[in-house]
Amino acid sequence: MTQPVQPIFILPEGTQRNSGKNAQRNNIMAAKLVAETVRTTLGPKGMDKMLVDSLGDVTVTNDGVTILEEMSIEHPTAKMIVEIARTQEDEVGDGTTTAVVIAGELLKKAEELLDMEIHPSVIVKGYRIAAEKAQVILNNISETVSEKDIELLKKIAATAMTGKGTGSNKDNLADIVVLSVLQVMDKENGLITIDKDDIKLEKKVGENIEETQLVQGIVLDKERVHSNMPKTVKNAKTALLDCPIEIKNTETDAKIQITDPSQMQAFLDMEEKMLKDMIDKIVSAGANVVFCQKGIDDIAQHFLAKKGIYAIRRVKKSDMEKLSKATNANIISNLDDLSQKDLGKAGIVHGKKIGDEEMTFVEECINPKAVTILIRGSTEHVIDEVNRAMTDSIGDVIAGLKIGKVVAGAGSTEIEVARNLRHYAESLSGREQLAVRAFAETMEIIPRTLAENSGLDPINVLTELKSAHDKGKKWAGIDVFSGKVIDAWKAGVIEPLKVKTQAISSASEVATMILRIDDVIASGPAEKHNIPMPETQEQ
User: Fold this and answer.
1) Is 356 marked active-site?
2) Is 97 part of the annotated catalytic residue set?
3) Per the count of CB atoms within 10 A, which of 175, 329, 453, 466 is most buried?
4) In CATH terms, is domain 146-216+370-403 a member of 1.10.3720.10?
């Protein structure tokens, strides 16, 4: 008689496990669902999503990364797809939807190959070969751009904003974006350096989008600390202080005993004199505008007002750094060190009421290396979407200048990459050829989606596009408004090369990582440890 086999448990109770094809199917399904969610937002005619969080706050957007981050995704594989969008946003600032859609389609094509009994390792190898070849193709077909090509840069900026709530104002906004980027740009040894944090985006509800303006300096959401201070200071000499204009409290608890009223008065007089000395140091340095990162005492405010100095307190550290770059002033941590050479210059500093709030404008700076774009819009939701569009646009112009290469949009680049990859696949032998061909077909998802989102027949559009590219028209793309095939370059639909290269590399890396997973082991809920209560002995 055979002994019953004792089951061996290696995982704790409550653990869920999916392995083999089942795990792969589930992972691919999760990734495809994420891609489908954002796919309808692609292109000039893409639709928007309304996202409502747990507090009831509403976000209306078609920005891929914003949608995915607001969705609070739980599935582990879906989270990996969200990471693509985040990387794309950090690296370029645009193309998040493109990257996610390509990743979803790569996995969809991989599923078809898995059904043909092709091993995941073969698909992964083929995808890697294709991704590398795609990068080479993209570099070969790209065109050059420099800071002198102003019109081309404006087209990049306008393309990034298309379909993102900017409406008919995109040309005006594109001008603002290009001017702001070129203003903060530095060039050392032929290398362009641009920090997009030097372009401050300040939002203010009211007026229309066309009232959005570029300020050659910094706009602060602050007002002067005392009503007797001047409202406007011309030929401003700015002092940036990272120290309080207040009497310091002692580090240890100190006790002062006063036995006589005259001692009390002497104590107050001394405090006042110390504050007056502080203000005298500012005046003697020649400053007529003070930006303080810390607090300003009430008595000090009075003295500053008497001297005709415009002062603001509790300015954010990031704003202080921008003010330093805009006015060319040094940030001082000790008032004793303040001298004339530490002061910055601005043509005019003035308080201005925008809507129902007083704001401070530091304008007419000489060659400022930090500027502000004051964004206007009719509602909070409109202004937020314009802000996202401007952020993407700034990222695109910076990416175009840094790499110095651009490509045309409207699906033309993807069709050209797909055409070249198909030719390359024919030179391969073995099953990798099928994976490379699948990668080529994946690239066509972008023009296909553009057509679908515009209510056009995707099969007709793709056929016409392929035919045009076979005739050597490498920038033949789809005009989503007329439904016709156009020369995307001549139409001014231009994107930085980095958007495409980053999207393809991120999407292929995540797709291959997901394909290599054949086992998903999810731990059960954490057990609550019940601590036994000590037994009480009956007397």
Assistant:
1) no
2) yes
3) 329
4) no
Q: Is 392 a catalytic residue?
A: yes
SS3 379: coil
pLDDT greater than 60 at residue 530: no
Residue 515: per-residue pLDDT:
76
- Measured torsion, CA atoms of residues 469, 475, 478, 480, in degrees rounded to the nearest 10: 180
pLDDT at 157: 85
Query: Tens of pLDDT along 468-505?
Result: 888 888 888 888 788 788 888 888 888 888 888 888 88
Architecture of domain 16-144+407-522: Orthogonal Bundle (1.10)
- Domain residue ranges in the chain: 16-144+407-522, 146-216+370-403, 217-250+258-367
d(CA 89, CA 61): 15
63 in active site: yes
- Per DSSP bridges, beta strands 331-332 and 405-408 are unpaired
Which one of 96, 98, 166, 449 is the catalytic residue?
Answer: 96
Looking at the predicted structure, is the pLDDT value of residue 250 above 70? Answer: no
- Bridge partner residues of 516 (DSSP): none
Q: 217-250+258-367 — its CATH code? A: 3.50.7.10
Question: Is the torsion defined by CA of 102, 107, 112, 118 positive or negative?
Answer: positive
Lowest mean pLDDT among 75-84, 129-138, 387-396: 75-84
Collapsing DSSP to helix, strand or coil, 247 comes out as: coil
The active-site residue out of 48, 198, 297, 392 is 392
- 146-216+370-403 and 217-250+258-367 share one fold: no
pLDDT in tens, 314-337: 888 888 888 888 888 888 888 777
Active-site residue, selected from the candidate residues 63, 94, 319, 479:
63
What CA–CA distance (Å, rounded) separates 97 from 39?
7
pLDDT: which is higher, 440 or 45: 440
